[in-house]
Each structure stands twice: as C-alpha cells, then as structure tokens.
Amino acid sequence: MIAQNTIIALQDSYTTPVDRKRSMLPPTMAFYTRMLGVVFKSAHRAKRGRYGDAEWVNSSIDIFNGLEAAGCNFDIRGMGVLSRLAGPVVFVANHMSTLETFVLPSLINPVCPCTFVIKPSLMDYPVFGHVMRSRHPIVVSRDNPRQDLVMVMEQGAERIKNGTSVILFPQTTRTQHFDHTTFNSLGVKLARSAGVPVLPIALKTDAWDNGRLFKDFGRIRPHRRVHIHFGEQLSVEGNGREQHERVVAFVQHLLEQWQMETS
After folding, report:
1. pTM given for the model
2. Short-list 223, 186, 225, CA closest to 93
C-alpha cells in the first residue's frame, strides 16, 4: 500500500504486495465509491484555489490506493530515472485508459512538476473539470492537427520554460491495441523545439476498462495487471526521427512482452 507520505518515485520499482488489503465489495463498485469521493473533495479545493501540487499528488495516491483495494496489481519499473532528471522533459506515452491520467501524477509530480496535454472535454466535465483547470493543462481539439501543433509547441514551450514537464499521449484516442502509425511525433517535436529530452513511458492499464456508454468510466478488471515502465531520457538530435522511432520501439516491445506474459 502506498502511504500518503511515501514518495514512490524515489524507488526504481514497485509491485503491489501480495498481502495488500482488499475491499469486500465488487471491484468496480469498490473503486468508484472511493474515486468519486476523491474527485469531489479535490474539486471542492480546486474551486477555492486550494488545490496545488501536493494536493494533486495526494489525490492521485488516493486513486492508486483505491485501485489496489479493488484488487488491481501494479508492476512499475524504471522510476529511478525520474530522480536523475536535471530539469523538465517531455514524457511521451501510449494511451490505453483513464487510469494513467489519474495515477501518473503520483509517480512523476513529487520529483518533477508536470502537466498534461488533454482534450477539451476533460475541462468541461462536471466536478472533475475544476481539478483539470487547476493543473493548467495544454488543451488541444484533435480536430485540427495544424492548430494543435501550434498550441502544443507554444504552450508546451511556456510550461517547460517555467520548469514544468509535459505529459503527452501521441495517439488520437485511448486504445488497448497499439498502432505505431497513429503514434505521431508531436512529443519529440516539442522536446526538440524546447531543447529538453524526451522520456518514453510504456503503459498497460486496461485494468480500468473503457466504458461503453461513458468511455472514461468502464469496469475495473483486477485480473489484468497494470504495467507502467519508464524508459531512459533521450536527447533529441537532428530532425528527431531516430528518437521518435526509439520511443515507438520501446513502447511496442514492452506491450508485446506483456501480452505474451498474459497469453
């Protein structure tokens, strides 16, 4: 169990303990009962301007603990790279579920202030929108690639200049199947323009399933192990094509490995 005062990012790896205390409720009910309480509490603070980095990390840890209590098992690797960062970076990851949006702040933000590139709907969500707005994310439409590029390059450079790393999901939508052709190079372009490294993250987070009616609120499936693996930071050179290919290869290799382990 991750305690409130534990900075897990200072470790290199974390695996859910086998003796982790579990809820007696069905997994989906157990998690959303807790998750909604965390979101309402966070939104209440955000509306009053009292939701800073520490509060964001603590609520993210609450979500992490809620997932474990619902039966989810985490396997997180490579976190030692975070404590070795000399400054902000651009994190580039595949996007599989809502889980990473809620959990990554607990791993990254304690040692590396960060924000997300997100879709507009997250800003407009009832209650949760207050939380996202307090984090000063970069909002892109995904309808106009050229406009999105300008937005990410300008606002991303501003965030990085102020010491904040940017977490970017190059895929246009969440998907459990990785397609390298939809994994654009926007993260590498931002890193090159801002003069900072790019750092890949491979994610297998389908334990928080995508919902049928509301995509962000699917079933919790504890039998699917959650994998989060941080890669080494890459200095972007030339046009960045090589670094982009290395990011894609890193994510694809690990997803294939995890798939084989569950087959």
Report:
1. 0.93
2. 186
Label each residue of the chain as H, E or C: CCCCCCCHHHCCEEECCCCCCCCCCCHHHHHHHHHHHHHHHHHHHHHCCCCCHHHHHHHHHHHHHHHHHCCCCEEEECCHHHHCCCCCCEEEECCCCCHHHHHHHHHHCCCCCEEEEECHHHHHCCCHHHHHHHCCCEECCCCCHHHHHHHHHHHHHHHHHCCCEEEECCCCCCCCCCCHHHCCCHHHHHHHHHCCCEEEEEEECCCECCCCCCCCCCCECCCCCEEEEECCCECCCCCCHHHHHHHHHHHHHHHHHHHHHHC
From first to last of the 263 residues of the chain, give the pLDDT tens digit: 444 434 455 578 999 999 999 999 999 999 999 999 999 999 999 999 999 999 999 999 999 999 999 999 999 999 999 999 999 999 999 999 999 999 999 999 999 999 999 888 888 888 888 999 999 999 998 777 788 889 999 999 999 999 999 999 998 777 778 888 889 999 999 999 999 999 999 999 999 998 777 777 899 999 999 999 999 999 999 999 999 999 999 999 999 999 988 76
Distance CA 165, CA 156 (A): 8
Which tokens sit at 167? 């977490």
**Paired tokens of 56:** 């964001």
